[in-house]
Write a structure and sequence with these properties.
The chain is α+β, with helices and mostly antiparallel strands. Among the domains are: 2-111 and 474-499, 2-Layer Sandwich (Alpha-Beta Plaits); 149-253, Transcription elongation factor, GreA/GreB, C-terminal domain (Chitinase A, domain 3, Roll); 380-446, no CATH class. The protein has helices spanning 25-37, 51-58, 60-83, 133-146, 259-263, 271-305, 312-332, 337-343, 348-376, 383-400, 403-410, 413-440, 458-468, 481-486, and strands at residues 2-7, 12-19, 91-97, 102-109, 113-115, 149-152, 162-171, 181-191, 219-225, 239-253, 307-309, 477-479, 497-499. The strands form 3 sheets. A 6-stranded antiparallel β-sheet has the order 1-2-4-3-13-12. Strands 6, 7, 8, 9 and 10 form a 5-stranded antiparallel β-sheet that branches. It has a two-stranded antiparallel sheet with strand order 5-11. Strand 3 (91-97) and strand 4 (102-109) form a beta hairpin. It starts with a strand and ends in a 5-residue tail after the last strand.
């Protein structure tokens, strides 16, 4: 076997493997047996007809074609070993030259590579803000309104009143094929002048102020243009007309801010304890949001200085993953992907190119750079860290999943393996980000990077083994529809076939 290897610009290896015509002979015998086993040849049991009989009935080209397929499947793993290539995914047989020598031309996707830049020179201040007294008081006021008593009043609505309304909403300038009717007779209750502490004001911040002065059974039209950065993605930059029917006005009587109020929440004896807990909760959430933004910006800087290479198959896989997530999210809204694309007035191909592909490129670059940073910084995980992460994830899942459904999932080995691997990935990412923060804030000492030797828990290893088990089999050629059509003719010079990744 003689190999000619060329690395292409798309991060794939073109391998031309040469063989002597005599190397094909043993596969021709196997091919003839396989043909005979699938055929009814008079006078012979299945698979027992001699070579010359099979050749006479089906033709030498048909045997040769089958033999080349068998040979290709057998030698492909050997070629990868000889070429010292660990493929990122299945390779493709691009051409077969049945001359002297016989030449197989493969295109094999290479594993992604990352060359880090001078990331240790990146500097970025870490300065999360403290929660203000105003934020704490606003949250407490929200709690008071939540536990307030409400009494109907025969007067116009005023600030701090609880009002019940019915709401219609219509797009003023809908796009082509866009349904202008957004809401119809939507019941809604709100406190006039209240700002949601989690910024979930609906239908938009300050909407309730438009209701001041209205009496029960009054109607009012309100026009509003959503900002370009609105949390309602579909409404960004859109002008909407609301029609409000005010049904009921109620005056709120708020509970006193004392120890009795604190005891309503079960865990606190004094109002001071409650206020302290609220401040801590808000601070944790605010710091968490800041961390997410800080680490995102920091990683972006590292990615800018790095050189990331991967084959198109890896990018396609990531795009498929994004599409699956979008489809899954839409299913919760009882919406099909095609319907969603109509609402945003985009053809699928345009959507894939303008939104999905850039997102996939960004995701890949970040995940690959994170992995390389872990290696460069010699960051390891202890089994206890993985277990802690798994426990935390399970706690979160328990809060949103039906107990019976969760019980069924937890006895599924594949689910547990996937959960463990996800936990390990999250824990490792967190440690890498912490390391990056130390570097960016000047708190670290220069250390020579060493090859990573990640410590894994037993469960993590099992998860990895489970995922890889399907790959640890002898690769077989997969026929595309095009190849299957070509099989209608006995002799073919060129085929396109998928060749699965060989075992490691």
């Amino acid at each position: 076997m003689k190999l000619n290897i060329e690395t292409r610009e798309d991060h794939q290896a073109k391998i031309i493997a040469e063989f002597e015509p005599s190397d094909l002979d043993k596969y021709k015998i196997k091919a003839a047996r396989r043909i005979a086993s699938k055929s009814k040849i008079p006078g012979f049991r299945p698979g027992k007809a001699p070579y010359d009989v099979v050749s006479r009935l089906y033709g030498e080209p048909a045997i040769e074609e089958d033999a080349i397929e068998l040979m290709m499947e057998a030698v492909y793993p050997e070629i990868l070993v000889e070429a010292k290539i660990d493929p990122a995914s299945s390779g493709t047989l691009e051409d077969v030259d049945k001359g002297d020598p016989i030449r197989f031309t493969f295109v094999v996707p290479l594993q992604p590579t990352v060359t880090l830049g001078n990331y240790k020179e990146i500097r970025k201040a870490y300065a999360p803000k403290s929660v203000t007294e105003k934020q704490v008081n606003e949250f407490i006021q929200h709690l008071r309104r939540t536990y307030a008593t409400a009494e109907p009043v025969e007067r116009p609505a005023a600030k701090d009143d609880l009002v019940y309304i019915k709401l219609d909403a219509t797009l003023l300038k809908p796009d082509k094929e866009e349904n202008p009717e957004l809401l119809k007779d939507r019941p809604l209750q709100l406190v006039i002048g209240e700002n949601d502490p989690e910024e979930n004001d609906y239908p938009y911040p300050g909407f309730g102020d438009n209701l001041i002065g209205l009496n029960a059974n009054d109607e009012k039209k309100i026009k509003y243009t959503y900002p370009k950065d609105s949390k309602f993605e579909k409404l960004r930059g859109k002008a909407v007309e609301f029609n409000v029917l005010l049904q009921t006005v109620k005056q709120l009587t708020l509970p006193e801010l004392n120890d009795d109020f604190a005891k309503m929440f079960g865990e606190y004896e004094t109002f001071a304890q409650l206020k302290e807990a609220i401040q801590e909760q808000l601070q944790n959430r605010q710091t968490s949001e800041y961390d997410e933004m800080y680490y995102e910006e920091l990683l972006d800087e590292v990615v800018k200085t790095a050189t990331v290479k991967y084959p198109p198959q890896v990018l396609e896989h990531e795009m498929e993953h994004i599409i699956e997530n979008v489809t899954h999210d839409l299913s919760h809204q009882k919406m099909e992907l095609d319907v969603y694309l109509k609402t945003i007035n985009k053809e699928k191909e345009v959507w894939l190119e303008e939104e999905v592909k850039p997102a996939a490129v960004k995701n890949l670059s970040k995940s690959l750079v994170l992995r390389e940073l872990a290696k460069a910084e010699d960051i390891e995980l202890a089994s206890e860290e993985i277990q802690t992460e798994v426990t935390g994830m399970l706690t979160q899942i328990q809060q949103t999943t039906n107990p019976k459904a969760l019980s069924k999932q937890l006895i599924n080995k594949n689910y547990l393996n996937a959960l463990t691997m996800d936990a390990a990935s999250r824990a490792m990412s967190r440690k890498v980000f912490e390391r990056l923060k130390d570097i960016a804030t000047g708190k670290t000492v220069e250390v020579a990077g060493k090859p990573v030797k990640a410590a894994r828990s037993k469960s993590t290893k099992e998860a990895k083994d489970s995922v890889q088990s399907t790959d640890e089999q002898k690769p077989k050629a997969k026929k595309t529809k095009a190849a299957a059509v070509k099989e209608a003719t006995p002799a073919t010079v060129k085929k396109t076939k998928k060749v699965e990744k060989t075992s490691e």
